[in-house]
Amino acid sequence: MLSQLPASEKLAAILRISQRMNSERDLHQLLDLVAEEGARLLGAERASIFLLSEDGRELTSKVALGSSEMIRLDSKQGIAGTVVSTCEEIVVDDAYGDTRFYQGVDERSGYRTKNMLAVPLTDLDGRAIGAFEILNKREGIFDEEDKQITRALAASAAIAIQTAKFILELQRHRVRLEDENRNLLRELGGKLPGKTILGSHPKIEELRRMIERVADAEVTVLITGESGTGKDLIARSLHFASPRAARPFVALNCAALPETLVETELFGVEKGVATGVDRRAGKFESAHGGTLFLDEIGDLSLSAQAKILRVLQERMVERIGGRTPIPVDVRVIAATNKDLAEAIQKNLFREDLYYRLNVIHLKTTPLRQMTADIPALASMLLLRIAEEMRRPALALSPAALNALASYRWPGNIRQLENELRRAMVVARGQMIEPEDFSEALQGAAESAAPAGPASGKGLQDEIEELERRRIQEAMARHGQNQQKTARALGLSRQGLINKLKRYGIKANAAEDE
Ligand SMILES: Nc1ncnc2c1ncn2[C@@H]1O[C@H](COP(=O)(O)OP(=O)(O)OP(=O)(O)O)[C@@H](O)[C@H]1O
Ligand SMILES: [Mg+2]
To answer: Is 365 in the pocket of ligand 1 (CB under 6 A)?
Structure first.
């Protein structure tokens, strides 16, 4: 029997138990282990552990080993209560003859306590966090050696219990944070003001449909179009409509990246590559599980293009100075306002990378090709801006609408947004008037003529612009009557309908025929 063991072997047993305790992270199993081993080492029938509640009012213990039923005591009650209050150990030779003993515990557990050794469990500051009780020594009474052994076990047990509690708390905390994070991201998904794609032009509607259709697919998407036409917005919409929505969306502006930093930014770096360099994950790793948005990809150097192509092919990254490749699960979306076909011709862009990226190609439309949509778009943007500014939205006067519709918008929707934001600030009445816009826009409104060749835009754009405007004017002149308008323009009715569709002009008066 263990209680008959020589002292050196008891010491060895204590060390073994301590080691086991320190590798046990589950609080309940840890308590079972301490109780079981304590009783065995002292040659006693059983042992129990009482822990003090957070508020210090209650002591709890399991009814029996392996059971999950709990016994609750007032923190001053019984031998355990006395040990915790005084922080001193107690030996009881005859439990039922001791007034401090609380028989309720025996009644609950159906066990009869005869004698007992109880020592406090204390934290690192010496405060009691519970009591460790050894019950019914099989032979003789608890002696000095028993006390020493129990104290040693209690000291290790207290530390292990605190560690286990701390880990449990951290785990709960992590689960809560992850939950919170997921919910926030889900909310952000579509609802974030300023982050929905507005517009009812057929081209924008088609774009919205495409985003819905390809969001779920894991394919790479290339977005091209002029500056300010919503490429960034589309990339985010794709991510938040995809199953990856709750994982990171990481954007990297390739144009803003000096050649020397490309690799560090994309692939990360191992500690100690150069003095003072800390270990850092690259964008590919940070986007793991989510989406990596490579913005302005047309501005990447050929050597950086080659490196990205390799990651896309192998789905692995290697940190600079690192030896093991790290697998990455990332959906790539790329955008550029450059003409990549032309860049390929000039050997500035790799054709193989182009085909890798271009699985799905989304093209944005310049605002000047959606003029019919400008009034509606402007009103919606105004509402959004007003909400952002926490002010009521102003209305656009007919003259102001006219000014917006006749401008060429080199900066596209971004520029329109900025004009409206400016007007919201400078307008004095309830209406936005042309004079509330910037000079560039006012100049265009005054001339109110089709933009001349000085605009620097292509001939095709200008022809389309002219045609669109002629059709709009004719429709207005003929009270939206398609038959009359077609005749006035020398077109067939179907020819006019095709053009109305093409330019997104609303044929809202079909019924007046
Ligand atoms: N269809 C749209 N509906 C609502 N807002 C839009 C739309 N298109 C663009 N915007 C807004 O216009 C601004 C510019 O858009 P974004 O940054 O996405 O353009 P971009 O194509 O990435 O431009 P750049 O090439 O200059 O980076 C943003 O504030 C965006 O919210
Ligand atoms: Mg952009």
So the answer is: no
As a whole number of angstroms, the distance between CA 298 and CA 296 comes to 5
Query: What's the gap in Å between 330 CA and the centre of ligand 1?
Result: 24
Task: Give 450-462 pLDDT, tens digit per residue.
Answer: 444 444 556 677 7
Q: Work out the widest C-alpha separation in the chain, in whole angstroms.
A: 120
Q: Please tell me if the CB atom of residue 228 comes closer than 6 angstroms to any atom of ligand 1.
A: yes
Nearest CA to 364 out of 178, 453, 232 is that of 232
Residue 64 reports pLDDT greater than 80: no
pLDDT at position 180: 78
pLDDT tens, residue by residue, 203-256: 999 999 999 899 888 899 999 999 999 999 999 999 988 889 888 999 999 988
Q: Helices 459-477 & 482-489, crossing angle to 10 degrees?
A: 130
DSSP 8-state secondary structure symbol assigned to residue 346: T
pLDDT tens digits along 276-320 = 667 788 999 999 999 999 999 999 999 999 999 999 999 999 888
DSSP state of 165: H
418 falls within a domain: yes
Q: Is residue 185 part of a domain?
A: no
183 lies in some domain: no
CB contact at 8 A, 284 and 248? no
Residue 184 falls within a domain, yes or no? Answer: no
Q: Which residues pair with 134 in a beta bridge?
A: 47, 117
Q: What are 342-356's pLDDT values in tens digits?
A: 999 999 999 999 999
- Are residues 225 and 147 part of one domain? no
405-431 residue pLDDT tens: 889 999 999 999 999 999 999 999 889
Judge if 442 and 337 occupy the same domain: no
What is the span of the domain harbouring residue 486? 457-513
Q: Are residues 356 and 380 in the same domain?
A: no
Question: Given the structure tokens 């008066």, which residue do they identify?
Answer: 509
pTM: 0.57
Return the percentage of the chain with pLDDT > 70, whole number. Answer: 90
Strands 128-137 and 44-52 come out as: antiparallel
Q: Would you put residue 422 in left (φ > 0), alpha (ψ -120 to 50) or beta?
A: alpha
Are 415 and 306 contained in the same domain?
no
List, for residues 132-182, the tens digit of each pLDDT value. 999 999 998 899 999 998 998 899 889 888 888 888 888 888 878 877 776
Pocket test for ligand 1, best of 379, 414, 419 (most atoms within 8 A of CB): 414
How many independent structural domains does the chain possess? 4
| CATH at 315 | 3.40.50.300
Judgement on whether residues 108 and 206 belong to the same structural domain of the protein? no
Ligand nearest to the CA of 225: 1
Query: CATH number for the domain including 474?
Result: 1.10.10
Structure token pair of residue 190: 């579509």
Cβ neighbours of residue 321 closer than 8 Å, sequence gap 6 or more? 269, 270, 272, 273
Q: In terms of domains, do 197 and 243 share one?
A: yes
| Cα 255 to ligand 1 centroid, rounded to whole Å | 17
